[in-house]
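Researcher: Can you fold this with flavin-adenine dinucleotide in place?
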Amino acid sequence: MTETIVVVGTGVAGATAAQTLRKEGFAGRVVLIGEEAALPYRRPVLSKDLLAGSITAERAQLEPAGYWADHDIDLRTETRVVELDPRRHRLRLWDNEILDYDAVILATGARARHLDHDGGDRVLSLRTAENVAPLRAAIEAHRSLLVVGAGLIGCEVASTARELGAEVTVLESAPSPLARIVPPAVAEMYVGLHAERDVPVHTGVALRSLTGDDDGVHATAEDGRAWTAGAALVAVGSVPDTALARAAGLTVGDGIVVDEAYRTSAAGVYAAGDAMEQPNPVLGGRHRTENWNSARAQGIAAAKSVLGQPLGAAEVPWGWSNQYGHNLQFAGWSRHDDDYVVRGSIEGRDFTALALRGDRLVGAIALGRPKDIRIVRQLVAAGAAVDRGALADESVALGDVAGRRAAATPASL
Ligand SMILES: Cc1cc2nc3c(=O)[nH]c(=O)nc-3n(C[C@H](O)[C@H](O)[C@H](O)COP(=O)(O)OP(=O)(O)OC[C@H]3O[C@@H](n4cnc5c(N)ncnc54)[C@H](O)[C@@H]3O)c2cc1C
């Protein structure tokens, strides 16, 4: 009988997993199932080029429409998997169709986190391609937008909406924007970037209410501050979609728990992408990523694991964000409270901020320095001790800093 591998989720992790099965020569049946109506697409463009209108939805697709059938991948969009029975190796779809599998890869991704406030239909969120048109229409109709949440997506939408000519105000509960991933000095630089475009970023906002009526949306903070705009985007993070795995009795922590080979706690069930957490190959413990490159790499690795192929070393994660034409890149597992050494100038908007824990490099944030990010990923993966002085000394090539002693005075944040 033909072997069947089912992939749940048509995001980049799932789509890449299905493609990899074929690229690696799997000749059995491949079924790729996703709840969204759109063919697999590049999610990062939602807040950037697609919202800006500089590319079409078709150009956002991962592959041309005919690709999936041409590669004998049974792609089923607008189809939700409602039940996983790992004991019987069986899935149930929302129209009650039963699919038996030999292996299944769960790539169910994440969903936008919602606030408890019910602001009506002028309060929007952005996670899927379907969310883009209503957001764009609201920006065009009302010309003013309140962005609740100054994480990467909130800041990107603020930038795009401003470039579309809207008045934009950003509200953030933390003391600074992008608080989860960048150190305070970089956050301050971002506040400056937004301020130059007349986009105020209000921080420390404990939202008391967010309501909508015919006049617009109204936000009030616990400390009495208040804002009004034509529409609001709530961008307060995402939550991994682990519902299917949890209901099936799989081990779930922050995400669906997998081992080094992307195997979940149930035989024949694998997981990849934003929905899963895996062992951290460098720092120990476990981690869950939320970026495009990692989801793609995990999709490839999970498919290879299903086929019993060697996986190689797990990658050090890295991602990017575009705001007002500036390309921010980040790599590794840096946190805002790490000890940072800076190459270049944050004020000059040309820098690499290297995150240290003890004498170990754990990650970096860079603006306009993609080459540094490539080297940082290698250094982090090697887990080698680095010298602070050499790190801060731009005359020492970044690739040469491991273990080197240098006399320069480190520049700290
Ligand atoms: C607006 C936006 C901008 C971003 N920008 C960047 C960026 O600039 N750089 C970067 O590195 N990352 C960015 N990201 C993050 C990146 O897009 C994600 O990390 C990545 O897409 C995750 O891929 P995934 O395949 O794991 O999950 P997802 O892309 O979330 O896909 C999961 C899919 O599974 C489907 N699904 C879930 N449950 C079921 C079920 N039971 N049955 C059927 N289907 C199901 C979902 O509908 C979804 O289509 C951005 C994300 C967003 C939302």
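Model: Folded with flavin-adenine dinucleotide in place. Residues 292-306 form the longest helix (15 residues).
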